[in-house]
Specification:
Elements lengths: L1 H16 L7 H8 L3 H12 L3 H19 L4 H7 L5 H12 L3 H6 L15 H10 L15 E7 L2 E8 L5 H6 L4 H9 L13 E7 L2 E11 L11 E5 L2 E8 L4 H18 L7 E3 L6 E6 L4 E10 L1
Antiparallel strand pairs: 1-6, 2-4, 2-5, 3-4, 3-8, 6-9, 7-9, 8-9
Helix pairs in contact: 1-3, 1-8, 5-6, 8-11
């Protein structure tokens, strides 16, 4: 039932907001109004991990980002995230990432951070809204038409996975790719992203007349650092892109409608009306999806006619 998904998502939200204040099962259950037993049972059922393990991994991952992005003392980070000593923090860090905090802070590298779990989706939201007694009085949020604009992206490298047997986001993750591991590793590289671009980026590419799906992160053209296991690094030439864009929206309410609207325009648009033609033979399309902060966009490379 969607009620369980919504309840566990509330637990996840509460955990993320309390990582530095010693989140405990009792505190959380009191705050949310559910018994400790019920909380742990439903959390494990929907996430596949124990509540204790999830809290531990989220805390150590948040601590890793703080070490990466600042010169704060390791002891101060350890205390902030509830570890009893620097030694205990170091043991936990090595267990999670196979590198000591001191080495990581000095030379950050790709590591599998634990990403925030999402178990309450637009699908569950619409089930909930359907069941409300006032459903016939609900008014859909206003959605605007997809905008079309031009953006120039300089030459860069793209680190990620190109899958010729996948056609979209769902296919990609169903095709044997580990979402938690890949997204967590790319999150640890977020400080390297190409300026003015989102961090983790998806999209489509073309190979031998076949369309596939990609997922990764754009970085500077001169990047010479480590490439995570299972990923490749490719050079992407500079290009103009037609950007089909919808501004920030309510993910739970409107994600499906926004994506359909944007993609319908993107895949049926005639670029000659703007003096361009598609240039996808040696370049890749990009897909940006950050509903609350950016919105949704499909980017297709073009060149002047």
């Amino acid at each position: 039932m969607y009620e369980w998904n919504e309840m566990v998502q509330l637990m996840i939200d509460w955990i993320d907001n309390n990582l530095t204040s010693a989140p405990s099962l009792l505190r959380m259950s009191n705050q949310l109004g559910y018994s400790p037993y019920y909380c742990t049972k439903q959390f494990h059922s929907l996430t596949g991990m124990t509540l204790r393990d999830y809290v531990w991994m989220r805390r150590i991952s948040r601590a890793a980002l703080e070490l990466r992005d600042s010169n704060v003392r390791i002891l101060d980070v350890a205390v902030k995230y509830g570890f009893s000593s620097q030694e205990a923090f170091t043991r936990a860090f090595v267990k999670a990432f196979e590198v000591t905090p001191a080495v990581y802070q000095k030379e950050p590298r790709p590591i599998p951070l634990a990403i925030r779990v999402e178990v309450f989706s637009p699908y569950h939201y619409h089930l909930r809204e359907r069941d409300k007694m006032v459903k016939d009085k609900m008014v859909k949020d206003h959605l605007q038409e997809a905008e079309v604009k031009i953006e120039h992206i300089p030459a860069h490298k793209f680190i990620g996975i190109w899958d010729t047997s996948s056609r979209n986001y769902g296919d990609f993750w169903r095709n044997g790719h580990n979402c938690d591991e890949i997204c967590g590793t790319l999150e640890s590289m977020s400080h390297l992203k190409l300026p003015e671009q989102l961090g983790q980026t998806a999209g489509w590419f073309y190979q031998d007349g076949q369309k596939g799906y990609l997922y990764g992160i754009p970085v500077a053209a001169d990047y010479a650092g480590e490439i995570p296991a299972g990923m490749k690094c490719r050079d992407i030439p500079e290009s103009d892109y037609l950007v089909f864009f919808h501004p920030p929206f309510n993910y739970l309410k409107n994600n499906g409608d926004v994506m359909r609207m944007v993609e319908e325009k993107a895949w049926n648009f005639d670029p000659s009306s703007l003096g361009y033609e598609w240039d996808e033979q040696t370049k890749q399309d990009y897909q940006r999806h950050f509903p609350e902060g950016y919105g949704y966009a499909v980017l297709r490379p073009v060149k002047k006619v």
